[in-house]
Design goal:
By secondary structure, the protein is mainly alpha-helical. It has 26 helices and no strands. It is globular and about 80 Å long. Keywords: Hydrolase, Membrane, Transmembrane, Transmembrane helix. One of its GO terms (cellular component) is membrane.
């Protein structure tokens, strides 16, 4: 597979997954969603039509188009984290970069909003928001009005305002009614609002954290906070104290807050700590109906199953990073010995050739072939898949089980292709690559997601399962369209992963 084909397939596949996910999650937020879908459709069109009209550049063009669509999202997410950490100028800069990458009116407005929110004092933030409101468009007024009420800490004002105006689109905007209803002690209404927008409540969303804290779910709040790596300690203490107060454990919350009240905090963080000391969170006990409690129990169980990794860096998934390092090291040996796409070179280094294994009994090739790759594109695509899936599986089932699924699944995949070749059902070839092992990881996590969905029927579990199905369908289409990719190896690896997950009992394994 040449570089242009690799880039076009990667960009087109990612866009296809993005489009399918919109319809699976039913995240219809007009008019923004129309622009989003159109952009990804253009990426797919470039990937398909470019092959015919611009074969020398179509991969680069598809990749650049995809980058222009997806880059603002990570930049704005990072800007949110920087703003939360008190690094206001850096947050405004990232928002500005996002607007330059995708120069739409919405992105330019977002950059201006971040600039206003990056002012040092509350009075300066209010003045900047007022000035922005004078020049803002009608569809931007709701966000600006809510931000002004938020800066003034007029929580009841937000509740009254949202009763007259629709909630703006997006998971961040759902945080406005949840925070306002929680601060005013209207917990039943808060849970009802969350239930209406449950599709936007995820394990990485601040709105989910606030909901659990205001309802006194201390353990779930602590679990989520452990995953917010960039959140300042003082902000974590604020939400821990909120959960403790709501759970009638105020004697633990007050010293926690007072320990930060005199610390070196940003003005916004200090204001929040002092406000929580002056007005503790309402007690949750006795305020919630059985229906609301059931919803919270369901959400808490989902958080326990799917909370992001608690650790950062290599400690988050040591086996995954070790496998990536091993694959890259072996590829370095390939480069040292010659052409990485040459079949003879790959065979000398341990590629799987049926006659060498069966006739000469070189069974070690079943393992060595898993760490060889035919060209940099082959290596990069597999290592991206291993990075994404390996971390997920390792966080879910543990490092030892993840490593066993990878190695045994890869061996079974290689052995399966060998058996089919010997039976005359597939053509003999030098087989290399980690994709069979990676598909074993997909099989393992697919069984886990299916088990979670069947046990809970939670909408988020349905979304997780649907996304895996979408990825599998797109990968199957790519495998069948490109003869260089072994559909057989992928299929055997996937089935092996399901079987291994069942044998190891990882379908309902607790997080490590």
């Amino acid at each position: 597979m040449d570089l242009q084909t690799f880039l076009a397939l990667s960009a087109g596949s990612l866009s296809a997954v993005a489009i399918a996910q919109v319809f699976v999650t039913r995240a219809y937020r007009f008019p923004g969603i129309a622009i989003y879908l159109a952009g990804h459709a253009i990426v797919i069109a470039i990937a398909v039509a470019g092959y015919r009209f611009l074969p020398a550049y179509y991969g680069f063009l598809a990749a650049l188009a995809l980058l222009a669509i997806i880059a603002p999202g990570p930049l704005l997410n990072r800007a949110n984290r920087e703003l939360l950490a008190g690094r206001n100028e850096r947050a405004a800069l990232l928002a500005r970069l996002a607007s330059l990458v995708q120069p739409t009116s919405q992105s330019r407005f977002t950059a201006k909003l971040f600039k206003a929110l990056s002012e040092s004092t509350r009075e300066e933030r209010i003045d900047a928001l007022e000035a922005l409101r004078q020049t803002g468009k009608p569809d931007q007024e709701v966000i600006l009005d809510l931000q002004l009420l938020r800066q003034r800490q007029d929580w009841q004002g937000i509740v009254d305002y949202l009763a007259r105006n629709p909630v703006p689109a997006g998971a961040d905007a759902v945080a406005f009614p949840i925070r306002a209803l929680g601060e005013t002690g209207q917990l039943e209404a808060m849970v009802a609002t969350a239930a209406r927008y449950r599709g936007l409540l995820g394990t990485g969303q601040l709105s989910t954290l606030m909901l659990l804290a205001f309802c006194g779910r201390v353990q779930a709040t602590d679990s989520m906070l452990a995953s917010f790596h960039a959140m300042p300690v003082s902000v974590k203490a604020f939400w821990q104290a909120t959960a403790l107060q709501a759970a009638a454990r105020g004697e633990l919350a007050e010293p926690l807050l007072r320990g930060f009240a005199s610390a070196a905090l940003t003005p916004a963080q200090h204001e929040a700590i002092v406000a929580r000391l002056d007005k503790p969170a309402s007690l949750a006990e006795g305020q919630l109906s059985s229906q609301a409690t059931a919803f919270l129990d369901d959400l808490e169980a989902h958080v326990r199953r799917n909370a992001p990794l608690r650790r950062t860096g290599w400690r988050a998934a040591p086996v995954t990073y070790l496998l990536i390092l091993a694959n890259c090291a072996v590829f370095g040996v390939e480069l040292w010995n010659g052409d990485t796409t040459d079949a003879e070179n790959l065979f000398r280094l341990g590629g799987l050739w049926p006659d060498a294994v069966v006739r000469d009994h070189e069974w070690w090739r079943l393992l060595s072939a898993m760490f060889l790759h035919a060209g940099p594109e082959h290596l990069i695509s597999n290592m991206i898949g291993l990075l994404l899936l390996g971390r997920m599986v390792e966080a879910t089932v543990g490092s030892l089980r993840m490593g066993l699924v990878y190695l045994i699944g890869g061996l079974v995949s290689m052995a399966g292709v060998l058996a089919l070749t010997e039976a005359g059902l597939t053509q003999p070839d030098v087989l290399v690559g980690a994709s069979g092992a990676i598909f074993a990881l997909i099989g393992a996590i697919a069984l886990r997601r299916l088990s979670d969905f069947l046990a809970t029927r939670h909408i988020a579990d349905r979304h997780n399962l649907s996304l895996i199905v979408i990825v599998l369908l797109i990968q199957a289409a790519i495998d069948l369209s490109l003869p260089q990719i072994s559909f057989t190896a992928h299929g055997i690896g996937f089935v092996a992963g399901i079987a291994l997950a069942w044998i190891f009992g990882t379908a309902h394994a607790s997080r490590r």
